[in-house]
Amino acid sequence: MVLAGYRVVMAGPLRRRNALIAFARAFKPGTPGIGRRMSALPRLIKASFTGRYDGKGRLFLMVLAGLYIISPFDLIPEIFIPFIGIIDDAFVATWLAGAVFSETERFLEWENTTGGRPPKVVQVVRRQPAKVVRTKR
Fold first, then answer.
1. The pLDDT value given to residue 119
2. pTM assigned to the model
């Protein structure tokens, strides 16, 4: 699927590289703007928790990243190693921004293709071939 000059993979995993690419793409003309992406966040959360959209796991990771940034506990505390302690928070914040941009872009594409409805599951029913019955004349 192609949207505004770049390839969109709907089922792509949320990796650091994808998040950084989405962060950079958010400022390109022709892509959804930051305001449109941020206004999609409440709909994304609602659709994820009602089961219409498959974003629960990604939302959970974003919440964990946000909690890590604001928590006083770090893997590398700023008190002992000030410069490096801030770098780990900066990496997490950069990943979080890219992840939000990537997921909102994915969600907006999902809304545009499905109209905000989950895809319909179609059951394929195989028909038995018709029996040929010969009658005597």
1. 57
2. 0.64
**Own/partner pairs for 43-48, CB < 8 Å, 24+ apart?**
43/107, 43/111, 43/116, 44/103, 44/104, 44/107, 47/107, 47/116
pLDDT band, very low/low/confident/very high, at 60 (cuts 50, 70, 90): very high
Within a 13 Å sphere around the CA of 31, how many CA atoms are in the beta-carbon half? Answer: 20
b/e map 38-70, b = 16+ CB within 10 Å: eebeebbeebbeeebbebeebbeebeebeebee
pLDDT band at 3 (very low <50, low <70, confident <90, very high): very low
Residues whose CB is less than 8 angstroms from the CB of residue 37 and which lie 6 or more positions away in sequence, other chains included: 26, 100, 101, 104, 105, 108
Round to whole Å and give the CA distance between 58 and 76.
Answer: 24
